[in-house]
Structures
1.
Amino acid sequence: MPRPRANDTELDKLARFERIKKAITALEKQQSLLLKQSNLAPSGAWVARYQARQNLKKYWYYKLQASTPCLPQATSSKLSKYKHLGKAGTPEHIDAVMSVFRRSVWDEIQKIIDTLDDCLLDISSGSEQEEEDPQD
């Protein structure tokens, strides 16, 4: 089998580089679409269910919760770890659930973009093929 010529290798690298760039562009467009749909929940936020009791009755409510204060408060300029959403199915509840969903999709797309950026770096720096250290 004939050895690939240097020119063929460079053309192959260029073609792979361009395919990866197109994939990154498509993924970035998906992220833009997510941002246009509505807000993203803060990173690491989730919707939590909690119980309140009053007059021997139990009520279930929902809140958007984060591990650090990052949610605006209605009555203060300070940030909070919690945002009350009310009962299941309220517009606030559904908006929060969907914002958490959009955040998780956006984060996963970003991880893929970061991986593809590493691939571009490998191709452009020539580190795809490295010499192996001889073992004793």
2.
Amino acid sequence: MTTFDDRERAFETKFAMDEDMAFRVTARRNRLLGQWAAARMGLTPEETDAYAKAVVQADFEEAGDEDVIRKIVGDLTAASVEIDEATVRQALDDQMVEARRQLMEAK
């Protein structure tokens, strides 16, 4: 039974590591997306940092990406930046790739 127990522990450990990495990638993606949106709104570096943190926090409102997309589109529209949801979704995808790249390089 020891071999079976060892395999089970190994799978549990791998699952935990994968979940942790997925969380970190999503948080990094949201921060990068916040920086992307802040640049379009013309925010200062201090405002950009605060806004990026607010975007990361917005992701905890509900499961999925809709809360983040809704925040970005709403904030850009309020700042008189013409943007559509498709553009924000594309930026979200682009930032996901960048976030993964950054985290893989950091290892």
3.
Amino acid sequence: MADDGASGGFAGRLGARVEASDDGSARITFEVTDEHLNPAGTLHGGVLATLVDTAMGTAVRSATGEDDVPATSQLTVTYLRPGTTGPLVVTGRLRTRGEHLTVCEAEVEQGGEAIGHAVATFALLHR
């Protein structure tokens, strides 16, 4: 992860920024622009799925060793209301950690309202 807070990989190319990551939690900020909208003029569901997956994966990495690599094995996203252009915040947190599987949860807020919720299971791969 870069020192400037930019997320790496695909989420970083979208513009996601890791604002905080510690002890099984992570906070990501994102500026929704017109290029992130679907034909209906609302935030594309795939962008939101990428953001929650990234926040939860970052939360897992903050609570595991450098040799543990979280790999998403299941992801469920609930879209609560349409997202629009402007800033949003994604908060991910580790809920339950087993030896090989970890369960996480994420909330997405925009303009003070919840627009999405996600639950994911991550397999912990060992390098």
4.
Amino acid sequence: MTQKLPLPPFTLETALIKVQAGEDAWNTRNPEKIAMAYTVDTEWRNRDQLINGREAVIHFLQGKWEKELDYRLKKELWAYTDNRIAVRFEYEYHNQKGEWFRAYGNENWEFDENGLMRKRYASINDVAILEAERRLL
């Protein structure tokens, strides 16, 4: 059985490690690598989309980074307990027209006993910014 350390139940230290690992993985923009942190039957809500299963996650992320260019993410631990973690995040990207955006949001994560994310619920809002206003370089 595949494990993704650290495993629940989480402590402050292990929750911080898990959040940093998620940030690092997403900043690779490698859908196949990222998807390995999720259960085969993972359940997501991302904005207004419902995504089910690791293969659907890969497909979703491929499409995401075809539109969200030069994506850069920062996550921050909000809360944790047992097998759940909540984060706040912001990320920046530009579209094919060169217009820049900063997205803000919150995610609620639930993990299985092997440290794989079983559920991910994300609420996200985009704000148009000027390239000069970027913070995440």
